[in-house]
Structure formats: C-alpha cells, structure tokens
Amino acid sequence: MIEKDGSVASALINAATLALIDAGIEMNDMVSSCSVSLHADTIVVDPCATEEKSQRACAVVAVSPIRGTITFIDTSGPWTEASWNDALKTAIIACTQLDVTVREWLKGQLQQQQ
What is the CATH number of domain 8-104? Predict the structure, then answer.
C-alpha cells in the first residue's frame, strides 16, 4: 500500500484475494470486501480518511458472493439495530457489485491472454 485514504482493511482483503488469483491458487470463491460507516443517519460505503474521522460507527465486511456467506466482519462504534441492518445490507450489495466487476475484469484479462 502506497497511500492511506481510508478503508484500508477492505483494500488489504481485496488485495489478498487478487494476489491469490494472480498466484494461480485454486479457490471455491473469491472474497470481496468493503467498509461502511455511519454518519448521522446515513450509511457511507468505502469512506475516505476524512469521512472516517467524523463517523459514528464503522464496519469492514467481507463476503464470498457465490457461496452466499459473510466471511469477515469487524465493527466499531455504536450501531442501532436498524442502522446495523441497513449497513450490513449496503455492505453486502457493495461487495457483490465489486465481485461482479472483478470477475468481468478477470474474464477480459483471460481473453486477452488467449
């Protein structure tokens, strides 16, 4: 990592997944991760460092979308049940969208190599 501007844990989880793929390690599913933070009543996905400084609560979530499992959660700060449910749903959607994007990129890379 060259520069830190928030969501570091998620970036590291995603980098580890990409490193395993690049090394040719066989996996049952990829893991994708994102961070969410709570600002007043708003959920922010992948907050930058400035947003992290003013957040009320935050969470790092990693999922294996194909398997439909949450593989990692780390939270800090006070969450209400409603705000946590919203944050978790938002994080799962964001991780799933990231997974789709990465898979499409990987397919394109494989096609270029052939």
Answer: 3.30.230.70
Of 13, 114, 25, 15, the closest CA to residue 73 belongs to: 13
**42-77, pLDDT tens digit by residue?**
999 998 888 888 899 999 999 998 899 999 999 999
Are 55 and 77 in contact by the 8 Å Cβ rule? The answer is: yes
Q: pLDDT-derived band of residue 84, with 50, 70 and 90 as boundaries?
A: very high
Nearest residue to 9 via CA among 37, 34, 31? 34
Radius of gyration of the chain (CA): 15
- The residue ranges of every structural domain in the chain are 8-104
